[in-house]
Amino acid sequence: MTVYDRGEAGHGASWAAAGMLAAAVETEPGEEKLLPLALESQRLWPEFARELEAASGVSPEYRDEGTIVVALNRDDAAQLRHSYEFQKGLGLDLTWLTAAEAREREPHLKPGIAAAVWSPQDHQVENRCLGRALALAAPRAGVELVEHCPVREITIAAGRASGVVTERGPDTADIVVLAAGAWSREIGGIPPAYLPPVRPIKGQMLAVQMDRAAPLLRHVLWAPHSYLVPRLDGRLVIGATVEERGFDDRLTAGGVLALIDGAWRAVPAIEELPIAEMWVGFRPGSRDDAPMLGPSGIDRLVIATGHHRNGILLTPVSAAVVSTYILTGALPEIARPLSPERFVARAARTGQTTGLAVES
User: Fold this and answer.
1) Closest CA to 312 of 160, 166, 151, 181
2) How many Å apart are CA 319 and CA 168, to the nearest integer?
């Protein structure tokens, strides 16, 4: 098996992420078909993390302290109550907290918050450690990992994918898996109607440095306009904007200000912390904000992209789904609503044979 990466392995959207495994608190109306896949991946994560550390020698820093969602005022509380009741209606394990109960768990929360929700099953990993671990484990499992070598084209002959063309030349393959994230549509050779409808969704993020021995936060914290993710090295990751700006990788004053302000309103003590880093990432978003896993509509071309904000969460289940499909030819039941062919079928029904080519 050969894996080509346009840059350094693990340094795309995975590097820019926050590593939250938030199947419960991130579920929104309209995402019900994604929830079973997200919950299954959440279930797989502890063992996946152990196996990956054993294979690579690098811990992905899986942490199971849980997640708190906080409402700062009465309007926030009303919105939080609406989300809470929707998520509880799906059978998710959540608990409503009073302000006092929330501040007992996280004493540095702003005094006077309105309410909070506790999610004991929503955890986190250190996504950058995850990327390093995967990059080390893959070659040890017999994978040829070729970095800084973009795939220019997928070779398709007689309606079947037969290989790729890269900067180092053509390479034949029995199966081609397109897993290029937000860059998936930039690879040539695929007929327009079969291109996955994925686009870059820009996210600006930053990290501040806490005292490692006395961190301000110990849980992942969701506030109305930001989220905060504490790391074992003392970094506190703050994210993230959601912008339709193509591949514009510039940090903006407004984006950074919004993140800092949102975090400060929930945890005022961050104003004393030094900024450690600021960066931009590009989530791969599909038309319905759900991933595309499985058959592309072209024989021997498999799709694994469109994970939007759930790429880290869905890592183990995506690997399981795609490998099962490749080995058996059958897409697991849990992933069938997320087959890439849902978009191809829609285009065929409407007669828009080039409709999938217009996404940016």
Assistant:
1) 181
2) 27
Is residue 174 domain-shared with residue 307, that is, in the same domain? yes
What is the DSSP pairing of strand 123-124 with strand 144-146? unpaired
Query: Is residue 208 helix, strand or coil?
Result: strand
Residue ending a domain, among 221, 256, 285, is 285
Assigned token pair, 299: 């024989």
3-class DSSP state for residue 3? strand
Q: Which residue from 72, 69, 99 is spatially nearest to 84, judged by alpha carbons?
A: 69
Q: Is residue 107 part of a domain?
A: yes
Each residue of 243-296: pLDDT tens digit?
999 999 999 999 999 999 999 999 999 999 999 999 999 999 999 999 999 999
Question: Reduced to 3 states, what is the DSSP secondary structure of residue 54?
Answer: helix
The answer to whether 282 and 201 have CB atoms below 8 angstroms apart is yes
**70 and 119 housed in the same domain:** yes
Q: Are residues 100 and 114 both part of a single domain?
A: yes
Domain assignment of residue 105, given as a range: 55-125+200-285
Contact 98, 77 (CB under 8 A): no
How many structural domains compose the chain?
2
Q: Are 309 and 26 in contact (CB under 8 A)?
A: yes
Give the Cα separation of 332 and 321 in Å (integer): 6
CB-count exposure of residue 19 (10 Å: 0-12, 13-18, 19+): buried
pLDDT of 265: 97
- Contacts for 275 with CB less than 8 Å, ≥ 6 apart: 206, 207, 208, 209
Cβ atoms of residues 308 and 182 within 8 Å? no
Flag whether the pTM goes above 0.85.
yes
What type of residue is 40?
E
Residue 231 falls within a domain, yes or no? Answer: yes
Kindly tell me if the per-residue pLDDT of 356 is higher than 80: no
Residues 7, 24: one domain? yes
